[in-house]
Specification:
alpha+beta, Jelly Rolls, Arc Repressor Mutant, subunit A, 10 helices
Length: 298
């Protein structure tokens, strides 16, 4: 099942805290609701403050008004607002129902993250092709439904999953990070890179492994990994080179050859770009710790 909340029933949960805020983000309310009365209306200047709201439409239609602009909120659309701010969301008179998931959070991190995301994306967001934040919200609802006593640290982890999904969307990277979750065509190209990183590999070779045209392959690879194919290949080479620097006594020149860079000078330049240190500095533990295995992410 795509949405974990669908295994549960509609409900809502509120959280109060006896101690001062000890976490940078805390859950105040979470719920799955369906409203049918125009009496449902929340004004962002009339309900206290110091928190943020994320609400996602499952079915029906709602509305959000910011200043003089009104936005229709239909299926696969959601909104983010901070409170207090000049906004109002409600069930329009010409809408029969509005079904949605929502979460209300507070804390310094919550305010900073929501403000940054709203600045980049605006308050109203389409999640049609970017479901990761919504899936995280759905999982959190299901977790709380099954265990209302879920500890605040686990809840905070779930909230950060949702926030990072929103940040990824804000950066324009609707991508899958885990190689096993990549489409089969892209996985085939990655498999080729990992098997033959020490050899010359062209974009044509990678596209052929993926079974795609060169143009379509490059576009899909960037969309799904956040890197161009040649960047991803260099990433693999640098990770392998870092392992050899850490675990062998081979010379930098030898490692450059073994990892497909060819020349030591070029290898050093690329390594420094990725790692922030030269190969020798990395080997000696200068500027960056020579860990057992170095993973490079975007």
């Amino acid at each position: 099942m795509l949405f974990q909340h669908e295994e549960c029933e509609r409900s809502s949960y509120g959280f109060k805290y006896l101690s001062p805020a000890s976490l940078p983000i805390r859950l105040l309310n979470i719920g799955w609701d369906r409203v049918t009365s125009p009496a449902y209306r929340w004004n962002g200047m009339e309900r206290g403050g110091g928190y943020a709201v994320f609400q996602y439409t499952l079915s029906g239609r709602g509305a959000l008004k910011i200043g003089e602009t009104e936005y229709a909120l239909t299926r696969e659309q959601g909104f983010l607002v901070t409170v207090p701010s000049e906004h109002e969301y409600y069930l329009p008179h010409d809408s029969e129902e509005w079904e949605f998931l929502y979460v209300v959070v507070n804390g310094m991190d919550a305010a900073n993250h929501f403000s940054d995301i709203i600045q980049k994306l605006g308050s109203v967001i389409s999640f049609k092709d970017h479901m990761e934040p919504v899936l995280a919200l759905s999982r959190l609802y299901a977790d709380v439904y099954r265990d209302p006593q879920l500890d605040k640290y686990t809840i905070a982890i779930r909230l950060y999953e949702m926030l990072m999904g929103l940040h990824r969307l804000a950066e324009g990277r609707d991508i899958v990070r885990a190689a096993e979750d990549l489409p089969e065509s892209i996985r085939a190209a990655v498999k080729l890179m990992k098997a033959r990183y020490a050899h010359d590999l062209s974009i044509d070779d990678m596209a052929e492994a993926a079974g795609l045209t060169k143009f379509h392959f490059c576009r899909q690879f960037l969309k799904k990994t956040g890197l161009k194919p040649n960047q991803y290949l260099r990433k693999i080479r640098v990770e392998q080179a870092a392992w050899l620097l850490r675990h062998t006594g081979k010379t930098v020149e030898s490692i450059a050859q073994e990892t497909g860079f060819g020349y030591a000078n070029y290898f050093s330049k690329v390594f420094r770009t990725f790692v922030g240190a030269t190969p020798n500095e990395y080997r000696l533990g200068k500027k960056v710790d020579p860990v057992y295995f170095l993973r490079i992410g975007q």
